[in-house]
Amino acid sequence: MSDLAINLLASAIAGFTVWVSQLLLRRRKRARVEGFFGLQAGSSALLIVSKQARSEWANSIEKSDVSAMVELAVLLKSCDVTPRFYMHHEDVPGIGDEVEFCIGGPMSNLRTAAHLRWHMPGVTQSTFEEDPEGLTIRVGGKDFRRVRGESEYALIARIVIDGAKRPIFLILGQTALANEAAARYLVRKKTALSRAYGNERSFCFVLGMYGREVYGPHFVRLVEDITGSAFNVPPTLEGHAGAKAPDDSRG
């Protein structure tokens, strides 16, 4: 065999090896993403969004919330998962049968309010009447209060319900722009989050978004992991925690 033929064969083998290595790497990355989000290729996932807070129209959506949904929809399509969009007041099918991304706070998203009530009793948010400027998120005795023009906060949680097939992801920002910032963070930090939290358990953390007038939704920092407080009933409410979940044994 000539030197030229040997060199060509060596180049072909090297090229094939690189191609296989890159293919395996891409598959491993995709498998990690699918595991973290509970996704399955060929399935669908729910994107549930709140209405525009100050709008009279039930189907009006903030532009930043649309951007948040686009971020998540691109992630889903990259895993061969079909996004299905719902407004928060629509009849959403089931719970835990499909991966769910719920966007918005409890005042403008009924689905978020239900998730907090039944699965994250340690988290509350003040209403517009109580706190029109701060929209304070309270978790385990700590207040995360918005300072207009300086800092805003958003909560990201993965809720794993016993017996459910798929997790729920909750994105609760004090503003629609904070929702967008949180969605971007969740998508871009998915590898690090997968390493930190794995694929099986619930978690919750708070992000801070700073300098919105200059940076928009792009300057975001992790503030605190609040998993321990978010999923437990606060001590001040333990005496009132006697309500039972609905009994589904009666059909």
Structure, described:
- This is Secreted protein.
- Keywords: Membrane, Transmembrane, Transmembrane helix.
- The chain crosses the membrane at residues 6-25.
- It contains seven helices and ten strands.
- It is an alpha/beta fold and 251 residues long.
- The protein has a seven-stranded mixed sheet with strand order 2-1-3-8-7-9-10, with helices on both faces. A three-stranded antiparallel sheet has the order 4-5-6, with no helix packed on it.
- The longest helix has 35 residues, at 3-37.
Topology:
Blueprint: H1 3-37, E1 44-49, H2 63-78, E2 82-87, E3 99-103, H3 110-119, E4 123-125, E5 137-139, E6 142-144, E7 151-159, E8 168-173, H4 176-188, H5 190-197, E9 203-210, H6 212-215, E10 220-225, H7 227-230
Parallel strand pairs: 1-2, 1-3, 3-8
Antiparallel strand pairs: 4-5, 5-6, 7-8, 7-9, 9-10
